[in-house]
Design goal:
heterodimer, A: alpha/beta, 21-stranded mixed beta sheet, about 30% helix, globular, B: alpha+beta, Ubiquitin-like (UB roll), F-box domain-containing protein (chain A)
């Protein structure tokens, strides 16, 4: 390759798009490092505190797309207090000062402000795509800035964010001359929507492919929107409640019949039980269906819809579908790759809507299944062993038995053997979440067999430090390990400090690690940020003489090249 | 399955008017699910699951599941949306959804615009164009349809039993169902029984 001019090498590199591969390329030699860094278009930063924006810009001066992730995963479950961090402002400011021609910004679990969005909208002439997932801290005023100033915006995709809805006119801030919209997702907005502005926007967006509405868009408006955008591929129905007039229903049904391009359907944030039948005509083309917010639709209606969805690849659903419903999925959806079954009842009302039988049925009926998230009340080792035999291709296997420490409900044994079978059979397993009654044995299996495992979530499991040690020693590709309410302590934490340099992060909450242990770790590993999140008023943690043995409530550690962060709130101690 | 523990709670009959003491029932139910040994719900401990040291078998230290932070691991956005189904903001405005068996469309009506059960009966008749819905309130057993409502705790109750004021405060939605279907439905018992 030394004989080729740089332009040729760069052209070859253009075909290499995965981050991992590009990182590998850059390690080959100095010349490749240099060519690669100037040609990198998409930068992915899994932990915004692992590097600073300035260092990023020095390394990659020419990128167009930036993906940033902030808070750790367990922040989704309210385990990370408000104000912990993940602020995008310094990034936007640094990028604005530089000469980067940013076109795309994708943020996950970060704190975004209206000022930041305003700055973003004014600083990058060619800005095209804003994707915010599980973010917070901004309002519809920020969206108004984006709408007003980003002339070439293609995508505005807001997924599951906490947005302060000022019920303003952000939708009418898109200029009348603006026609380049491709993706518009505002399902997470709570407030009223300017329907007139929305209809005019949709009507002048011939390239619109993905439209996801919030619950404030009523049936008649939905019918009108659909009628003027029959080219839509991905539709999120906000609300589907039959009002007084069935005329809207008829208009909707007429519009739906024209939706030959529709491949993905979601939403139904508020839904009349009988509404799904209107969509039966388009089901045969659907590859993705998300009904996981449609709590009011009964299992029987879900089943009637799914019977038409023979090409489904992705299904997100509530457990109200029941085992019977999952059997229908298993016999109908032979192309199914990803399934998520969410719990309807979060308070353990004893509703055994789905059990191990549903999971087994799916594993037997869907040969292409590779990703599953399954919430249920009960499980058995026998079922898991069967699932492992049926489906050795799992890449992601996340099982959540709602009651912590619950054993195999038939044999009363721990579920070690069941999960052991999964990791042994699924040689490509990258992500695993375990639950139920589990001893150290399951971690022995995981350490032995889960050689490709990158992310592991543990809750209420294990007996001794050995459990965690099996995982740390065995899983060479581990990147993210998150543990809660499990009896792992300092011995496990400190056994192999260098391991953490090969990982993105470790989270341990309500475990047995002590402040003394964390301090020792921080001393041994200066390349790590070891954060203790301490929400109690009890700042006497350092003062009393027993600090060495004081248990730490929440520990979050991650590798970083820029040392201690400066934006940590008072309740976060960085050792 | 620990049926014994569950069974006890399910068959517990509440005395007195609906709306009282139901909180107790719900919490007890939660606790039952929590402990695999089905130990007594009276032992509910307040506070978060003990960190570290006592992480052993739950049967030794039962904790109400509803008090374990971040469990089950459902993201907060999804939690908020599922809670919405339980306490839809529209109730505050007096609007409730009304469904009637055999009618494919859901209707909405403003409870606040009715002054009492008679008004409600009249409004329901008008809504569905069907006479006789309201008769059930007065005649009880003579009508083909019964009107039931879902209250704040998710239980289905026969409409007409409680004082109007109490009714509109707790009613989340209405359903008009055929009397013949109602018997197997699992309505909460009216008033004092057994």
């Amino acid at each position: 390759m030394n004989y080729f001019p740089d332009e040729v090498i760069e052209h070859v590199f253009d075909f290499v798009t995965s981050h991992k591969d590009r990182n590998s390329i850059s390690l080959v030699c100095k010349s490749w490092f240099k060519i690669e860094r100037y040609s990198r278009q998409n930068v992915f930063i899994g932990n915004c505190y692992s590097i600073s924006p300035e260092r990023l810009l020095r390394r990659f001066p020419c990128f167009k797309s930036l993906t940033l992730k902030g808070k750790p995963h367990f922040a989704d479950f309210n385990l990370v207090p408000h104000g912990w961090g993940g602020f995008v402002q310094p990034w936007i400011e640094a990028l604005a000062r530089s000469r980067v021609g940013l076109e795309e910004l994708r943020l996950k679990r970060m704190v975004v402000t209206d000022e930041g969005l305003e700055l973003l909208s004014r600083s990058f002439v060619n800005f095209k795509s804003l994707v915010l997932v599980s973010c917070e801290g901004f309002s519809t005023d920020g969206l108004a800035s984006i709408a007003s100033n980003c002339r070439h915006l293609r995508d505005l995709d807001l997924q599951e964010n906490e947005i302060d809805d000022h019920r303003g006119q952000w939708l009418s801030c898109f200029p009348e001359t603006y026609t380049s919209l491709v993706t518009l997702n505002f399902a997470c907005l709570e407030g009223e929507t300017n329907l007139v502005a929305l209809e005019r926007l949709v009507a002048r967006s011939p390239n619109l492919r993905s439209l996801k509405l919030n619950r404030a868009v009523p049936l008649d408006a939905l019918a009108r929107l659909m009628a003027c955008a029959p080219q839509i591929v991905d539709l999120g129905v906000g609300s589907y409640e039959d009002e007084q007039d069935s005329e809207s229903c008829l208009k909707l049904q007429a519009a739906i019949r024209k939706y030959t391009s529709l491949r993905s359907l979601s939403g139904f944030l508020e839904a009349a039980p009988h509404c799904l039948s209107a969509f039966h005509p388009v089901c045969h083309n659907l590859t993705s269906l998300n009904l996981s917010y449609a709590a009011e639709i009964h299992g029987s209606h879900l089943i009637k819809l799914i019977e038409h969805c023979k090409k489904l690849q992705r299904l997100w659903i509530l457990d109200s579908i029941g085992d019977k419903g999952l059997e229908v999925v298993a016999s109908t959806c032979k192309e199914l790759q990803e399934l998520r079954v969410f719990p309807t009842d979060l308070h353990g009302g004893g509703n055994t809507a789905v059990t191990e039988d549903g999971l087994v049925a799916i594993s037997a009926g869907c040969p292409k299944l590779h990703s599953i998230l399954y919430f249920c009340q009960q499980m058995t080792n026998a079922a898991l062993i069967t699932v492992a035999r049926n489906c050795p291709n799992f890449i992601r296997f996340r099982l959540c038995i709602l009651e912590p420490h619950k054993p195999d409900h038939v044999t009363s044994q721990p579920l070690d053997e069941g999960f052991g079978a999964i990791v042994q059979a699924c040689k490509n397993l990258k992500r695993l979440s375990v639950s139920g009654l589990l001893t150290d044995q399951v971690f022995l299996y995981i350490g032995m067999f889960a050689t490709q495992l990158e992310m592991l979530s543990i809750a209420f499991a294990g007996d001794t430090d050995k459990g965690m040690l099996y995982v740390l020693n065995g899983c060479k590709k581990m990147r993210k390990l998150e543990i809660r309410d499990s009896p792992f302590g300092d011995a496990a934490l400190l056994a192999d400090v260098n391991k953490y340099e090969t990982m993105r992060s470790l989270w341990m909450s309500s475990c047995e690690v002590t402040l003394g242990g964390c301090k020792r770790l921080a001393r041994k590993a200066p390349w790590l940020n070891v954060e203790i999140i301490n929400e109690n008023d009890n700042n006497r943690m350092e003062e009393n003489g027993y600090e060495g043995r004081q248990k730490v409530d929440k520990l979050y550690l991650y590798r970083t090249v820029v040392g201690t962060r400066v934006d940590a709130p008072p309740f976060v101690w960085i050792l | 399955m620990e049926k014994d523990g569950l069974g006890l709670e399910i068959t517990e009959l509440r005395l007195g008017l609906p709306g009282t003491e139901k909180m107790m029932k719900k919490r007890g139910f939660t606790e039952m699910i929590m402990t695999s040994s089905g130990s007594n719900s009276d032992q509910c401990e307040s506070g978060v699951v003990s960190s570290g040291g006592d992480v052993g078998k739950v049967s030794e230290s039962p904790v109400a599941k509803s008090q374990v932070v971040g469990w089950p691991p459902v993201c907060s956005y999804r939690r908020k949306n599922s809670c919405k189904e339980v306490s839809t903001t529209k109730v505050g405005l007096g609007y409730v959804k009304v469904s009637m068996d055999g009618v494919p469309y859901l209707r909405k009506m403003d409870l606040g615009s009715s002054q009492g059960y008679d008004d409600l009966a009249f409004a329901l008749d008008k809504l569905f164009g069907f006479h006789g819905i309201g008769v059930a309130f007065k005649d009880g057993d003579n009508c083909e349809y019964v009107t039931i409502y879902e209250d704040k705790d998710g239980d289905w109750m026969l409409a007409g039993d409680v004082p109007w004021g109490m009714f509109i405060e707790s009613c989340k939605r209405l359903r008009i169902m055929k009397r013949s279907d109602a018997t197997g439905f699992g309505l909460q018992p009216r008033g004092v029984d057994e």
